[in-house]
Structure formats: C-alpha cells, structure tokens
Specification:
heterodimer, A: 4-stranded antiparallel beta sheet, 1 helix, B: mainly beta, Immunoglobulin-like, 5-stranded antiparallel beta sheet, 5% helix, disordered N terminus
Chain lengths: 250, 455
C-alpha cells in the first residue's frame, strides 16, 4: 500500500540537466604533476597536467590541496586555483571535513599540525613521529596515524589546545589512512583492511602496500612494494576493489 | 710452321710497335718480351694473367683481334672488337691458364698482328671438388665457397672431394678448416697417401654463431680456399595474445599476455597495439581505451632467448582498459615477421551503474549516480522511493524522459559512455521517511534495474 505523497516530483525532470563527466579527483603522477582523473572503476581517464612540482596532494572530490616546494594550493572541483598559502618546504599531509572542505594540514619538515579555520591555517601542536594520515573526527577532534615501532599508533587529538586525548597501538599494521568519514584503511602485509566501525572489509593485494593517498572521498591511490604501477582502491564497505591507474609517460 | 715460329721469335720489336703489352700484377706492370712466363700452378688450379695493352701514340689505335691458342689457355672475357684505344689509353684483358693435367704448357697470344708466346707449368697436385646437387665443380686456389644464409644456431653442410689426377701416388699433407662457425673434417693421421685417380670425400659444416657475414679458410696441401656464409637472426616464434578475462566486456581492465608458440631462439622486441572500431560509425574515440603502463594504445615488449612469453617492461603481462563504448577492439601483436591478432567484441549492453549515493537535505533528496552507457542512447529513467518499512512512496514510479539530456551530454563527450547523473527530488513532508530507492535506466540495448539502494 502506498503512503501519502511525500515526494514532490515535478522538479525531477529539471534536475536531470546535471549530467556531466564523472570526476574521481586529482592525482600526482610519476613526474610529480597534478592531473585530473575521470571515470569509474576499471575505466579511468587521465587528463592533462594542471601543475608541476607537486610534492604532496590530497583531494576530497570537491577540493584539492596541493603541496609544492614552499606553498600550499587550494584547487576547486574544476582544478582552478582558489587560494594559495606560503608553507614550509617538504611534504605534507592533509585532511578534509565531511563536506569536503580543507580541515587539517601537517608539514613533515616542521612536524607541526595546523587546522583550517576562518580561511587561515592555525597551528595546533607538534607531532614528532612520522605521520602517515590525518582525519577530522568532528569539529573539535582530529585523528592522526603515526608510525611506531613496531606498527602504527592512532592518536586522538583535541584541537583546541592541541591535547593528546588517547593513543591506540596497532603493532601489526604497516601503513594506514583515515578518511573524512572516519573509515580506516589499514595495510597488514599483503592484506588491505577497511574498517568502518565494527565492519571489516578485506582485500588481498599482489604485494605489500608501500604508500597511500586519497584521490577523492571514495578512492585511494596505492603504490605496492616493488611495483611501478600506481593503483586505485575504491573504498566501499563490503567491497574493496583494486584497479590499475594509467602511468603517463613524461 | 717452323718459319712462322722463327719469324715470331726474331721480330718482336717491330711487331710490338702498335701497342705496348704489359703484364699487370696488382698495382704493378711488368713489361713483356716475346716469351712470357706465367709461372707454375697446381694442376688442379687456374691462373688468371692480366694483360694491359697501352697505346703510346698521340692518336687512337684500333684493336682488331685478340686471341690465345694453346691447350689449357683461354680468354674468358674477350674485349669487344674492333675497339679503338684512345691516345695514351689502355685496355685490359685476362688470359686464363687452367691445365687439365700436370706438365709444361705454352700458347700463342696474338694482338692484332703482334704475337707472344705464353708459358706455364702445371705441377702434380690434388684437386679439390665441390659436390653440389649431383654435380662436381672444380675449385681453384683462392676461390670462394659460399655456404649461403643460415640462422644462428642452425647449420648447413657442403660436401667436398679430394682427387688425385696424377699418374703417381700423391700425399695429403694438410687439410684444415678455420674460421668462426666453420667446422671441417677430423683428420687425425696425416700425411695420407692417395692413389692415382682415387678420391677422398669430406664435409665442411657452417653453423654461424652470430648474425652477419662469416668467413673461413679451407687449406689443402698449402693451397687456400675461402669459405663464406651469412648468419641470420633465427626465425622468431609466433606470438599468441592471451586475455584475462578471456571475453571482456565494456568497462573492464584486462590482463594481456603474449605467449610464444615455442621458446625463442634469440632475443627480440615486439609491439602490441589496440585499434578501436566503434559499433556506431561517427562515435567519437573513447579516451579510456588503451594500455595503462605506459598509457597509450601501443606498448613494446621484449622476448628473452629461450623465453616462452613476452615481457612488458619486465612484467609478464600488461593491463588494458576496454573503455565504455560498444564496438570492437583489435589487438595486434607483431614479432619479427609474425602479425597475430585478437578481437574483443564489446557488445552493446544496457546501462551499467557503478555507484549511487543519495544525500538527504531538509527538503530534498540528492541522488548522484555514476555509470556508463556503451550505446550512448539512454532514453528513460525510473525512480521509485520506499519508506523504512519498504512501502512504495507516492507517487510511485517516477518516469523521466532523459534522451535529450543524455544526447546533449554524449555529443560533447570524448570520455566514452561514462556519465555522472545528479538528480534532485524536492520532498514535501518528512524527508527522513524516505530510506531506499529503486532505479531503472533504459537504453537501446535494454533496461537495467538497481533495487533498493538504501540511504
């Protein structure tokens, strides 16, 4: 039995005007150029480079943060420059909030964590360990995954005042990443595990994971040990898929 | 006859007045007299003596006749006659001495009205014959036996025979074969006596060790015979294209291997390419179709010696994408002279949904759908929303005519059949009541239904 009308459908047809190319995000190619990436699982299309000299990059799908030698760039969904800040030399890690806006940055050379507030990067605290991933847990809390010996540690940080609230140790984990939704992607040997609350989704890898970085909300770029091919993992609870990304020649 | 010979011997100076006749050896010229000694050769050999006629006069002189008369002597390539030799000019020709038996030989060489006596000696020696196709060819010292073109690793054989043409027993004191790739008979006990008329057969094998020209030397009792051959690249095995999955569809990544029908006898490089033929003529190219590492529609591969499969930058397979446009992908593997193809038929199929995300706001539902239509012909969409108890919400199935919107999108897209659809459904009432949606997409190949996408 149908319930009373709750959907006003007259606008549905007009809404279909928004058919467009499916953009996955942006990625850093082997020549450290930032390229747009379109497509869907097993069908990637790599665009022309937007900028060169990229040291680190992260993309929420909506916004992209790019670390170059002495600056951080903020690009919009179309790859247009939206903002630019001076920054310490070297690599960086970034995190976005649940809506895809810039939230956190960590600079590896200074070991300083910053939060993005009022269009400014504000220092929060120093983290001495090697930082692998950052995530904004809520408006007041961040999570940082750092390398420990052995394994990794998950730090819960109170952003106001830069307090360390808790530390969780993962002695078996080799590398990990936390998404804006709080999902954890953990590499243990040749196994990749996506943890969403109590639900764990596993994927067997051809080789141990070496590094990851986020391509978009749903996609993570992954490089495997001894493998020159950059791959992409789609984060979907209950189903992890691994595909190859095109290796663009110089 | 006697008078003719006497006048010949007594009057060379006046008869030689018209042309100066010299014997040429390399770059040097030797003046001739009435009698020219050509020297001694083995009875099995031949000797080519090059004569040069010089015209020392200030005007051209006509050469009317050149002839040699005497057993064992010949002019293999006579000059065209008559011919005018320019003032201070010269003309060369060869007199060949090819004795049939040992002994002393002489002949008369006549140039116009001038005559010379040629003398030569043939010593008793072993003759060397090349046996080929049931025939025998006598070999002269310094002549060349060509073994032809042979693949590296393969071999060809030539059969020779040594004959004693003399009336006495002759000794074989030397029989050796040298040169890379050439292998001669194993003759451990020399000298060996050869009776008059007797023959001894042996073989020489040419098995080139490398590509290119090869040379060797066969030595028989102090006389040398040149051996030559050409090493060729071994024929490469035929490549076979293997796909995993074996029958791919649109929107897939496919592992591609090139297997060889037998182990490669030598290292080589080849090429694998993709050609796309869209099912609908005029459809733009699909940028997603191609190999991934390195990106492109052509990849090179290498084959190691002894290998049974090709390597792509050191890996035994490469990965390609089939794209999202219906048609045919023709893969072509080229290795040496082999050209092998495999065809992937990308059949037209109903729309494929890759991901759906529904986001609630206070007054609307925003549905984002990513998928592909390899026919580029989506015409109709249907959405049916459900509440938390699984009951259909009013107004039931929402049908949307979408052909014009998708036609416009695909007309400007070079990304194949991929698309991202964003649809907003304004809600009157409690938006939290809505918890799932059924989605139906229709194109020219059929209909796809996604049931109960929860959100």
């Amino acid at each position: 039995m149908r319930r009373s009308a709750v959907l006003l459908i007259v606008a549905a047809a007009a809404a279909l005007g928004q058919v467009k190319p499916p953009r996955i995000g942006f990625f850093q190619d082997a020549q450290n150029r930032l390229r747009p990436l379109w497509g869907l699982a097993a069908n990637f299309i790599v665009g022309e480079p937007l900028t060169e000299g990229v040291i680190s990059a992260a993309c929420s799908g909506q916004w992209t943060l790019v670390k170059r030698q002495a600056e951080v760039l903020l690009l919009d969904e179309e790859g247009q420059l939206a903002a630019r800040w001076e920054a310490p030399a070297g690599s960086a890690r970034f995190a976005f909030d649940a809506l895809g806006y810039p939230a956190l940055a960590f600079f590896d050379t200074t070991h300083l964590l910053y939060r993005f507030r009022s269009q400014q990067w504000q220092p929060v605290m120093a983290i001495e360990e090697e930082l692998l991933s950052l995530a904004l847990l809520d408006a007041d809390h961040a999570a940082a995954i750092v390398r420990s010996a052995p394994g990794l540690k998950l730090l819960r940080i109170l952003l106001d005042g830069g307090q360390l609230e808790s530390v969780l140790e993962w002695p078996r984990a080799e590398t990990a990443l936390m998404t804006a939704e709080g999902w954890l992607l953990v590499a243990q040997g040749e196994e990749l595990v996506l943890l969403r609350g109590e639900v764990a989704t596993r994927l067997r890898l051809p080789a141990p994971a070496e590094t990851f970085y986020q391509l978009s909300r749903d996609w993570v770029a992954i490089r495997l040990e001894g493998d020159s091919v950059l791959r992409a993992v789609r984060l979907r609870p209950g189903e992890l898929s691994l595909d190859c990304l095109a290796e663009v020649e110089p | 006859m006697r008078r003719w010979l006497a006048s010949l011997l007594l009057a060379p100076a006046c008869l030689l007045a018209q042309f100066q006749i010299v014997l040429v050896s390399g770059d040097t010229e030797r003046p001739t007299g009435a009698v020219v000694d050509l020297g001694a050769i083995d009875a099995g050999d031949l000797l080519d003596a090059r004569f040069r006629l010089r015209n020392p006069q200030a005007a051209g002189a006509v050469l009317d006749s050149v002839a040699v008369a005497g057993a064992g002597f010949s002019i293999p390539v006579p000059p065209p006659l008559p011919v005018t030799i320019a003032a201070r000019g010269a003309l060369d020709f060869v007199v060949r001495f090819e004795p049939r038996a040992p002994g002393a030989f002489s002949a008369v060489l006549t140039v116009n009205r001038t005559s010379l006596i040629l003398r030569a000696i043939a010593t008793a020696g072993l003759m060397l014959w090349l046996e080929e196709g049931g025939q025998r060819v006598k070999l002269a010292a310094e002549s060349t036996v060509d073994f032809g073109s042979v693949e590296v690793g393969a071999a060809t054989t030539r059969r020779f025979s040594i004959q004693n043409p003399a009336q006495t027993r002759l000794a074989l004191t030397e029989l050796t074969v040298t040169g890379e790739g050439f292998r001669g008979p194993d003759v451990p006990h020399l000298p060996v006596g050869l009776e008059p008329g007797a023959s001894q057969v042996f073989e020489v094998v040419f098995s080139p060790l490398r590509v290119g020209a090869a040379g060797g030397l066969l030595k028989l009792n102090g006389r040398s015979f040149r051996l030559s051959g050409q090493g060729l690249n071994p024929a490469l095995p035929k490549p076979e294209i293997l796909l995993d999955p074996p029958a791919p569809r649109s929107g897939q990544q496919v592992k591609v291997k090139v297997r060889l029908t037998r182990p490669a006898a030598s290292a080589a490089t080849g090429e694998l390419s993709i050609r796309f033929e869209p099912a609908t003529p005029g459809v733009p190219d699909d940028a997603a179709i191609g190999f991934l590492a390195p990106a492109g529609r052509v990849v090179s591969f290498s084959v190691e010696r002894g290998a049974e499969e090709a390597l792509f930058a050191g890996r035994s397979e490469t990965v390609m994408q089939t794209g999202t446009t219906a048609g045919r992908l023709v893969l072509t593997a080229r290795l040496g002279s082999h050209v092998e193809q495999a065809t992937i038929v990308l059949a037209a199929q109903p729309p494929v949904v890759d991901a759906v995300r529904v986001v609630r706001s206070r007054t609307a539902l925003e549905l984002n759908l990513v998928g592909f239509d390899n026919t580029r012909s989506i015409s109709e969409l249907n959405f049916t929303f459900f509440d938390r108890d699984g009951r259909v919400l009013e107004p039931g199935a929402i049908k949307v005519e979408a052909s014009s919107e998708f036609s416009r999108y695909f007309a400007g897209s070079t990304l194949g059949g991929v698309f991202a659809l964003r649809a907003i459904f304004p809600v009157s009432g409690d938006v939290n009541v809505v918890s799932a949606v059924d989605i139906e997409l229709t194109n020219a190949a059929g209909r796809t239904r996604i049931n109960r996408v929860s959100f």
